[in-house]
Amino acid sequence: MCDGAKLLAEAIGSGVLIDAVLFRENVPLPDLSSLGGARAYTLSDDVFTLVSPLENSPGPVFTARFPALPEGRPERVIVLENVQDPGNVGTVLRTAAAMGCGLVILTGECADPYNPKTVRSAMGALFRQPLSELPLRDLKAKLDGWGLPLYGAALAPDAEDVRALSLGHAALAVGNEGHGLSEELLSMCDKKVIIPMTPGSESLNAAVAASILLWEAARDLHI
User: Fold this and answer.
1) φ and ψ at 32, to 5 degrees?
2) How far is Cα 48 from Cα 103, in angstroms, rounded to an integer?
3) What's the number of CA atoms in the CB half-sphere (13 Å) around residue 199?
4) Which long-range contacts (C-beta less than 8 Å, at least 24 apart) are formed by 181-185?
5) Could you report the per-residue pLDDT of 118-171, keeping only the tens digit for each?
C-alpha cells in the first residue's frame, strides 16, 4: 500500500505494474492514461481516511506489484539482520539503490519492507532496488554460491578498518540497532569490519552504518 502523488510518479516512471489507485474526492485528478490501465476509484473523505496509512493525506493511495528479482549473481550485497525500525530499512533501500547495490537481503526479524513507513522512507527505491528475504540458515550458502565474501560490521577487537578492505565485490552485514549482529551471523563472516569513529562514540545508527559501507563499496568500483 503506497500513498502520495510523488510515490505514484516514481512507480509509473519505474515501470512497475500498478493494480489500483484510490483518489480522494475534491482533489484534482492526474492524467489517468499514465496509469497503464490500472483500476481507478474516487472515495469520499471519510472512506479515504480509513484507507490511507497517513493522516490527512491528499492521496492518492495505490497498490503496486514490486519487480521480480533479477537472475544472475549480484556484485554487491547488503545484509540487514534484525533491523526492526521501518525507517532504517527504508533508508538502506534508498541508499542501496543510489549506490548501485545488486541486492538487499533481509534476514531475521527485520521490519516489513512493504510496511507503509518503510515504503515512505525508501522514497520510491522499492520500485527499483532488488530485495530478498532469506532465513539466516540459508545465507552463507547463497553468498558462497555467488562467490561473495561476507563482512560483518562489528565493534570487536579483531575487526578490521573498513578503509583497508576492498568492498566492491562482497556482502556487507549490518545488525540490529541495539545489539548489532548475532553471534550466529558473525560466525559466518569471513571478516569483521569496523567504521572508525572519534573516541567516546559508542556506535552508529544501523542505516547510517549501512550507508557508509555502501559508499565505500561503490567508491572501490569508482562509481
Assistant:
1) -70, -15
2) 35
3) 0
4) 181/81, 181/152, 181/153, 181/154, 182/81, 182/82, 182/108, 182/136, 184/136, 185/79, 185/81, 185/107, 185/136, 185/139, 185/152
5) 999 999 899 999 999 999 999 999 999 999 999 999 988 899 999 999 999 999
Dist CA 114 CA 118 (whole Å): 6
b/e map 103-116, b = 16+ CB within 10 Å: bbbbbbebbebebb
Compute how many other C-beta atoms are within 10 angstroms of the C-beta atom of residue 32: 12
Going 35 to 40 to 45 to 46, the CA torsion angle's sign is negative
Residue 90 one-letter amino acid: G
Q: What is the pLDDT of residues 6-30, one digit of tens each?
A: 999 999 988 888 999 999 998 888 7
Question: 151, 193 in Cβ contact below 8 A?
Answer: yes
**Helices 206-220 + 86-98 axis angle, to 10:** 10
Ordered domains of the chain (ranges, CATH): 2-65 (3.30.1330.30), 77-220 (3.40.1280.10)
Question: Do 96 and 214 contact (CB within 8 A), yes or no?
Answer: yes
- What ranges in the chain are assigned the alpha helix state H? 5-14, 45-51, 86-98, 116-122, 136-146, 183-188, 206-220
Q: How far is C-alpha 110 from the chain's CA centre?
A: 11
> pTM for this structure?
0.90
Q: Rounded CA gap, 124 and 118, in Å?
A: 10
| Residue 56 region by backbone torsions, left for phi larger than 0, else alpha for psi between -120 and 50, else beta | left
